[in-house]
Amino acid sequence: MPADDTDVIHRVVDAGFNSRVAERITGLSYRQLVHWDETKLIRPSVRQASGRGTRRVYSFEDLLELRVVATLRQRGVSLQSVRKTVAYLRRHHPELRRPLANLTFVTDGASIFALTDDPGRVIDLTARGEVVIAMAVRPMIENLEAKVAAMAAPLEVQVPVRGKRYRAVLHPDLGAGGYWIEVPELPGCLTEADSVAEARAMLREVIGLWLDAEADRAASIAK
After folding, report:
1. In angstroms, rounded to a whole number, what is the distance separating the alpha carbons of residues 23 and 50?
2. Global model pTM greater than 0.70
3. Residue range 169-203, pLDDT digits in tens
4. Same-domain check for residues 111 and 187
5. Coil, helix or strand for 182?
6. Is the same domain home to 86 and 160?
7. Which sign does the torsion angle of CA 100, 101, 105, 109 carry?
8. Any residues with CB less than 8 A from the CB of 43 and at least 6 apart, and which?
9. Contact 182, 171 (CB under 8 A)
10. Dist. CA 64–CA 77, nearest whole Å
11. Which tens digits make up the pLDDT trace of 95-151?
């Protein structure tokens, strides 16, 4: 992965990811995220919802665990088996802070096994079934990193103001949502918006204000 993409990932991972981003990256619905949070299967570790209007914020490891569970469900594993697996790992392997993000799982659609560092030892997490499919977490990490890099990449737009076009850079805020925006040609010309359409409207206003302020400053110096 290019160094620039890695830098982007590190920046956004520190800020966390809101529910809308979690939906897009994991392929889960908002209802599933809320249900799994409320039933304590996988809860957002950066910030939990604390009432109407508050926002869930997930860490990268949260997203990875959500993706693991979603993949197990796609392979035919029941949610009851998933919950049993998570409970077993949390109870018997407390040294694994985030077991779903750090183990390799094997399933046949009914049973779930966890592979260990010892090739001869497999943890039977549901006590039944036969292993036929291996599912490694590492490729999921790489897939999520690629999605995060794509979603966090800045967008550029051209905004016409007073007969001139200005280049603006929109930086996605994956934690809070929306964008923070800068106009490189106009130092200190910054704003925020919830959408690209709103950004264009806001930019026309703030660029106009910036130009007026600069003209006033130049006039006062000329005096």
Report:
1. 20
2. no
3. 999 999 989 999 999 999 999 999 999 999 999 99
4. no
5. strand
6. no
7. positive
8. 36, 37, 62
9. yes
10. 17
11. 777 878 877 787 777 778 777 666 556 677 776 434 445 567 888 888 999 999 999
